[in-house]
Design brief:
Largest interface: A-B, 54 and 54 residues
CATH superfamily of the largest domain in chain A: Jelly Rolls
Structural class of chain A: alpha+beta
Helix content of chain A: 25-40%
Oligomer: homodimer
CATH architecture of the largest domain in chain A: Sandwich
Shape of chain A: globular
Number of strands of chain A: 11
Largest sheet of chain A: 4 strands, antiparallel
Chain lengths: 252, 252
DNA sequence: GGACCTCGTTGACTTTTATCAATGCAAATT
DNA sequence: AATTTGCATTGATAAAAGTCAACGAGGTCC
């Protein structure tokens, strides 16, 4: 049984979907982390409802005016940046409980695109209101800062990956990261469906899609994973981890 | 005449250096941006003094407990991340007016090292106090968020560079970025001293030092720049820019 | 002032990844 | 059920960057 099932077909964008942090099983992963019941109620009344997006549709695009950040309720997103000359860099993949849109705070204009990779739902969090509330609720303010800082730290990890790792290390790191995040959400750490194409993985990892495909095949040949198109099963997590620390792997 | 001159020799770390945003000519680049005189005075009284660091000394290290963020008053820093197996990724170079240390907010522990690449001075901004003050001064709160968001956007730019550009494009982007930042601080956009080694540039750009050196040499052969060790003069900024948009460069 | 030492440059060669191209697979459409 | 279409795999070859090694320049320390 797979952890990740597609949503039913739903309207393109449905504003006004009722949402409440206090009822949400993601609250410990998401913005309301650490809030008291009373404060969570105040956050509830600020959340501008939810939106449903069908696969392939944009939550926002580079150039859009920034008004809100978004919390992923369900589904899967990618963010990417485009240059004038058509280059495309995937900057992240976001799943339930993760926050999208913080790129827009700095200039009040979004600098990247956010696309649903499967039918998804988000909570809309108007940023001005969030700032007002967070100046009253210290733990909310602090947690917002933590969420932004965590994004910075995550980005440093991606830089490390892009700057110092070879193709197979990058892919191993990518799979282990997904595994850990699925696990934190109660899904299997060993078996999951990739929502993104080889090309999107390649863009994220700074590789061409053929290189990604070959690395998958080699992992399978080596008995580390089993791949069938987008379905991944990690057969040997510990050995996959040793790919990331080649020195230890050889010495140990 | 070079814009960037080494500081005199000074004690290793000197806490208690008197600093005041209201007197600082970097205030429009830095955290107090947009504050009224009154509010700037309140920020002044929060700043925990300044620190001087000699070249090669650490402002903080990965693993240090997080207490403050820092604003660079003068000098030049690099930040880098290390993995267990000894890999080292430079994640940024910081100059006057830029903020350091936001990586530590998320876990209350710094995740990277910050090293002075020349004798430098920073202002120490205790973060808990900054949060308290920013819940009272809305424009300070908002500007802090902008600074953090700008860091996220900057990181996306580095990902783009590492993920999609070839060696010479990366170096061109790097030089143009330095040029623009020196220019914003009133220094020459065309002539400056690099504070970092080829190896540090390479680490930042995901290249080996020899590749960086060869790219410099080729730029010089092509009449784009003039290089003499750490002294750089950009001879043809427009043409250097065309290296970043190869499609346009060929079509135009 | 000379020796040392770090950093930078350059060359020859190797490794890795990209590119180009063909084929296969599977889900979506009619 | 057949066709289309997008995605994935695989192979052959080319290009880019890395590695190893030697040498040179500049600054620092006695």
């Amino acid at each position: 049984m797979h952890a990740n099932v597609k949503q039913n077909v739903i309207p393109l964008i449905t504003p006004g979907l009722k949402v409440a942090c206090s009822q949400c099983n993601l609250r410990e992963l998401c913005l309301p982390f650490g809030l008291s019941d009373v404060d969570m109620g105040r956050l509830d009344s600020l959340i501008g409802g939810g939106r449903k997006l069908k696969r392939g549709h944009y939550l926002y695009r580079a150039g859009d005016p920034f008004e809100s950040i978004f919390a992923v309720r369900s589904g899967f997103f990618k963010t990417d940046v485009l240059t004038e000359d058509g280059r495309d860099q995937v900057t992240g993949f976001q799943m339930a409980g993760e926050i999208l849109g913080m790129d827009g705070i700095s200039t009040e204009i979004h600098t990247c695109n956010a696309v649903a990779l499967e039918d998804s739902e988000v909570c809309l969090i108007p940023f001005t209101e969030l700032e007002m509330l967070s100046s009253e609720i210290h733990s909310l303010q602090h947690h917002l800062h933590k969420v932004m800082s965590r994004e910075i730290v995550r980005d440093h990890g991606v830089m490390m990956l892009l700057g110092t790792m070879r193709a197979e290390e990058r892919l191993a790191a990518f799979l282990l990261n997904l595994s850990q995040r699925f696990s934190a959400r109660g899904y299997s750490p060993a078996e999951f469906h990739l929502r993104m194409t080889r090309e999107e993985i390649g863009s994220y990892l700074g590789l061409k899609l053929e290189t990604v495909s070959r690395a998958f095949s080699r992992f399978q040949d080596d008995g580390l994973i089993s791949v069938q198109q987008k379905h991944i099963r990690i057969v040997d997590i510990p050995r996959l981890k040793t790919l990331l620390t080649p020195a230890d792997g050889r010495i140990g």
